[in-house]
UniProtKB/TrEMBL annotation:
It comes from the Bacteria. Coiled coil: none annotated. This is Alpha/beta fold hydrolase. SUPFAM superfamilies: alpha/beta-Hydrolases (SSF53474). Keywords: Hydrolase. InterPro entries: AB_hydrolase_1 (IPR000073), AB_hydrolase_fold (IPR029058), AB_hydrolase_sf (IPR050266), Epox_hydrolase-like (IPR000639).
Length: 265
């Protein structure tokens, strides 16, 4: 679908309360397959590929989180979705925070998975920019090999070879120009704690117990910022609990949706 000057790829499956899930970096909408399969039975599940990822148009340069958020809102408008349950993981969670900051009226409930609301410190900003240059110089394969055991736990790299292969394929299949543009934009993101402190809708904060990128302590701080939020820790999972422990992740999400879904749409 042509929106905001790019072709946005997405899956739209099921009917009922709209559930929109936003993937992280450097992945694509296929990271949500276990959730699409489970929740499209009684919800309308929408999973887009972000600008620069998957089958959506790659735009080199720099993509601020506000641009990702505008793309999402344009997609909601196109689909006729005035108000949704909006969830995201890692960078996807930060994009969700940006949508909430700019368009809180579009959100009936929030799901923030393995993500952090805080702005990058100077060293982190420089590291993201350096990684962007590395991806353009080397391609995605060396980076994908290096971080696989952080995206999922080292144990799951061995014990869940199909999951590991899926995660690796997503990373290796991402366009370096799109990933680099997102890294540059993400380095300049604001601190979302002030806007999150004004959240007035049900919010689920969920994190893998062994997440190295956004550890449980980060999730606890996020939980403390968002009024009335629920915190769930998925045992034995790393940064991608929805893929590493899909049954447990889905159960957490199902309990949350059962409480908040009525009246959203």
């Amino acid at each position: 679908m042509r929106l905001n000057g790019i072709d946005i790829a997405y899956d739209d499956k099921g009917s009922g309360t709209p559930l929109v899930l936003v993937h992280g970096h450097p992945f694509n909408r296929s990271m949500w397959w276990p959730q699409v399969e489970r929740f499209s039975e009684d919800h309308r599940v929408v999973v887009p590929d972000l600008r620069g990822y998957g089958d959506t148009t790659v735009v080199p340069g720099k993509t601020p989180l506000g641009v990702f958020a505008d793309d999402l809102v344009a997609l909601l408008d196109h689909l006729g979705l005035a108000r949704v349950v909006l969830g995201g993981l890692s960078m996807g969670g930060q994009i969700v925070m940006e949508v909430h900051r700019a368009h809180p009226e579009r959100i009936g409930a929030l799901i923030l998975a393995d993500t952090s609301p805080e702005a990058d410190a100077q060293a982190e900003r420089e590291a993201r920019r350096a990684t962007a240059e590395r991806l353009l110089r080397e391609g995605m394969a060396p980076y994908a090999d290096e971080v696989l055991g952080k995206m999922i736990t080292p144990h799951h790299v061995r014990a869940l070879p199909e999951v590991a292969a899926h995660v690796s394929r997503m990373m290796r299949g991402t366009a370096p120009e799109g990933a680099a543009a997102a890294l540059r934009g993400r380095a300049e993101r604001p601190d979302y704690r002030d806007s999150l402190a004004r959240v007035a809708v049900p919010t689920l904060v969920v994190v893998g117990e062994e997440d190295e990128y956004t550890p449980v302590d980060v999730a606890r701080r996020l939980h403390g910022v968002v009024p009335g939020s629920t915190l769930a820790v998925v045992r034995g999972a790393g940064h991608l609990p929805n893929l590493e422990r899909p049954e447990e992740f889905n159960e957490v999400l199902a309990r949350f949706l059962a409480e908040v879904a009525p009246g959203i749409g």
